[in-house]
Amino acid sequence: MAAAADRDDAAPALLRWGDDAVAIADLAATAARHGRPLAEIPYAIRVLIENLERHRRAGHPGVVTGADVAAAVAWDRHRDRGLPLHVERVILPDSSGLPVLLDLAALRDAVAARGGDPGRVEPVVPVDLVVDHSLQVDRAGAPDAMIANMRREYERNGERYRFLKWASGAFTSLRVFPPGTGIIHQVNLEFVAEVVRRRRHGDTVWAVPDFVIGGDSHTPMVNGIGVLGWGVGGIDAESAMLGAAYVLPCPEVVGVRLAGTRRPGVTTTDLALAVTERLRREKVVAAIVEYGGEAVDALTIPERATIANMAPEYGATAGYFPIDARTIDYLALTRPGRDLAGLVDAYARRNGLFREPGAAVPRYGRVIEIDIGAVGAAVAGPRRPQDRLELPAVAGDFARRLATPLAEGGFAKAATTAETAAGTGGAGTDETITDGTVVLAAVTSCTNTSNPAVMLAAGLLARKARARGLTVPARVKTSLAPGSRVVTRYLERAGLLPDLEALGFHVIGYGCTTCGGKSGPLDPRVAAAIERDGPVAVAVLSGNRNFEGRIHRLVRANYIMSPPLVIAYALAGRIDRDLSREPIGQDADGRPVMLADIWPSADEIAAVMPHALDPDLFAAAYGGERPADPLWDDLAAPTGDRYGWDPASTYLIRPPFFDEEPPPLADRLDGVRVLGLFGDSLTTDHISPGGEIPADSPAGIYLRGQGIAPRDFNTYVARRCNHHVMARATFANLRIKNLLLPEREGWFTRHHPTGETVTFFEAASRYLAAGTPTVVLAGREYGTGSSRDWAAKGSALLGLRAVIAESYERIHRANLVGMGIVPLAFRDGEGWATLGLTGRETLTIDGLRAGVRTGAPVTVTARDGDRTVTFTVTAQVLTESERRQIEGGGILAMMVRDVSAAPPRATSA
Predict the structure, then answer these.
(1) Can you state the angle between helices 810-818 and 880-887, rounded to 10 degrees?
(2) Which ranges of the sequence are coiled-coil (predicted)?
(3) What pLDDT score was predicted for residue 905?
């Protein structure tokens, strides 16, 4: 009766567009019904209101109620309420998508074993998977690099790709974009996203805002064209794919007003780094950031996407740019013949989602003003994307960090290293490795390779450097990984690709590569010099992440910058050269070449920009459902509704998460031991690394025990469908700093009962065998970085029952909840250090059930010998849905129960 009473029997409003008429959830009428003018409501919240109102009326009446709609309309007064949203689609990279599909395959087996219909395990929304996280830069700086890397990619990943082809046949809602298509977010921006979609509910076709969640934290890049979306963990994606509501706590919405005019020579990357630095300082974690101001009108869609892409780096759920005239023009450019631009224009204007210049400013929780005219050329590093440095400060900051202790962000070098011969020259030449030597230079990552302005600028800088006779030192590994094939085509048309290639920046393939830790091997002489003498070597990349240990295991300093600056620093060969006033190098006549001499002007960039603005480029790159790929098309794959597991496989092993019913949430945990003790900003890269697998790591030792040679280890990303590897990979970043062992880095911890130093995996195994519960203690911003559900899955496999931290990043907190691990937060102003904890204590945690159910304080008593410390923490479990997940043993266990109990599928007559 409640569902019937909540249903609106009135016919929905209609949008007439051309000869078509589609139903819409009228936002102005909905807002008025709940006592608020639409103009006051942020555009991103309007998208959420539409989703709730439509599903209340037609999609999921009874699941979504009028009270939910009312809460969204008054979002700023209902911050503790969860909104039951239903996404329109899910997009996944192979890195998180393969484990998601593996879970669904195992879920089909589990449902069948319980007597249920395995066919019920089927996505109910469209799912796109883009294979872009597996490509490694094995070969670089050569014309055949792309072909060689693609062949090696298929050699390494053939089994995984055959599974993907099986999945694309077994799950009717799944579309797979094969290797070589492009980076997921650029494919989403240029092709997949529709901004407004047609959706059928019953017999009625509705026009609806495109609303997406993705298995990659940089999904907000699509916010740049007015599509609301954000990154989630794979376990959240699985649940949404199967039709469950994605419950979002009513978010804070922060208005960011961009004002002023950019200075000449300042790139969008510089602007994005400045925004990241400022918003991280403003603490917008878990907020939706919505951009406005007169400077937004001047930003192109790729420039907006560059800023939106960095949302995870400033901690926001999304970085939303509302639909406007530039959105419509971009759709016409990138999707010729798809008849989208007109529908989007008509719908957005009719339903209050179109932002006109000078329109009334919505009500925001707070407004942050950023003057883009004050932004200068900059880089971010050497370890975090929010650590921005104006160009003149880079060299001095690096020099200062050399002798600074690790705990203070330095490199703890006693003195600079002596020159070490490497490359083509000898000691004393420009081919030496010292502190500050650049050994990796990569134009890569979705952040920048979607943006023609910076990509063309890189090509023009390369042309001007080449004309002056500059070359890149042989010790620098150079690579160019465009975001899509469109980029390669416009660089070719502009005649700039040969200039890039002349400096060693050959296209090496289409994928995340260096930014995701797939930088491949260094020259053996360079690697040997670094391993022997330990200089602080440097990578420069146009990426979005530079966490320590991520880019390359031998490179300790990593700097994010614009593509043209990557070329410039590659030419200079050093990070400790002040490019604002020191020469990059000398030309053939011995004259100094300054950065200003080769930096392209705005007019030069504008002259070649038309090459990137041709609809034929996009039609050629994305013709049909997907581009043809003989390597992919010729790959043999199994068929059938259920996957046939190979017991000899070391890549695809049926995950254990559906095998046993998890125990109920305990109210009290006694004898708890601290598995790890960490400071601030422990990233998901630290918890679950994604790059190469060191031979002496726990995962490497396991793989060698399986008879696998180190050459064939592949990466942690590629091994994510083997839980034996991933359990051993947890807390196994080679640069992780566990303060239980402050004297060393890496995958080690202290086993308290014996006092031994062992690996995290070994310690966890001993605690599990003894029935000892474990926790992690940490500082602020626990779980920053990638939406890596294996950081939570691996923690669960190690037996963690809770994490106690000062604060959490949004995605990882949700992932912990999804795996049944309770995220607990210290009281404001407290932390393990202020409480005097050392991690050696034995803990008692009391009141967990009430803490999860009602938010009541949870009491922790820590004892170490005669010393006792008692303090309270709060469970960071934010919605009723999350409370059910924790009490039900995690979302995966709930899925087994829910799908097994569902009736069989209806069959057609």
Answers:
(1) 40
(2) none
(3) 47
Question: How wide is the angle at C-alpha 720 spanned by C-alphas 717 and 724, nearest 5°?
Answer: 130
- The dihedrals phi and psi of 778, each to the nearest 5 degrees, come to -150, 175
Q: Give the position of tokens 């799908």.
A: 899
Residue type, 29: A
The token pair at 15 is 């949008």
Per-residue model confidence as pLDDT tens digits over 512-533: 888 877 889 999 999 999 999 8
Print burial letters for 889-905: b (CB count within 10 Å at least 16), e (below 16): bbbbbbbbbbbbeeeee
Nearest to 305 by CA among 186, 482, 385, 453: 186
Q: Helix or strand or coil: residue 736?
A: coil
Q: Is 257 strand, coil or helix?
A: strand
DSSP tag of 56: I
Type of residue at 108? R
E strands of 223-298, at which residues? 228-231, 246-249, 253-259, 288-292
Residues of the chain with CATH 3.40.1060.10: 252-376
Q: Where in the chain is the domain with CATH 3.20.19.10?
A: 656-687+735-899
Distance, CA of 560 to CA of 542 (rounded, Å): 5
- Which residues in the chain are classed under CATH 3.30.499.10? 382-617
Q: For domain 252-376, give the CATH number.
A: 3.40.1060.10
User: What letter does residue 192 receive in the DSSP assignment?
Assistant: I
How is 334-369 classified by DSSP, letter by letter?
Answer: HSTTS--HHHHHHHHHHTT-B--TTPPPPP-SEEEE
The CA distance from 790 to 167, in Å, is 21
Question: With 0-12 CB in 10 A as exposed, 13-18 as middle and 19+ as buried, what is 515?
Answer: buried
- CA–CA dist 461, 499 (Å, integer): 9
pTM: 0.88
Torsion sign (Cα): 773, 776, 782, 788: negative
Return the pLDDT at 133.
87
Dihedral over Cα of 596, 597, 599, 601: its sign: positive
How many Å is the maximal CA-CA distance in the chain? Answer: 87
Sign of CA dihedral 175, 180, 186, 191: negative
pLDDT digits (tens, 9 = 90+) for 248-263: 999 999 999 999 999 9
Cα of 567 vs its chain's centroid, Å: 25
Helix 325-334 and helix 301-309, axial crossing angle in degrees, nearest 10? 100
Q: Which residue has the higher pLDDT, 407 or 12?
A: 12
Nearest Cα to Cα of residue 64 among 124, 7, 108, 20 = 7
Q: What is the pLDDT of residues 350-373, one digit of tens each?
A: 999 999 988 899 999 999 999 999
Q: How far apart are CA 881 and CA 598, in angstroms?
A: 56
Answer whether the bond into residue 382 is a cis peptide, omega within 30°: yes
What is the fold of 382-617?
Aconitase; domain 3 (3.30.499)
- Tokens 């995958």 correspond to 747
> Mean pLDDT throughout 622-650?
85
656-687+735-899: what fold? Aconitase; domain 4 (3.20.19)
Structure confidence by residue, pLDDT tens digits, 303-345: 999 999 999 999 999 999 999 999 999 999 999 988 899 999 9
Compute the distance between CA of residue 633 and CA of residue 256 in angstroms, rounded to an integer: 46
Question: The sheet that has 288-292: what strands, in order across it?
Answer: 318-320, 288-292, 253-259, 366-371
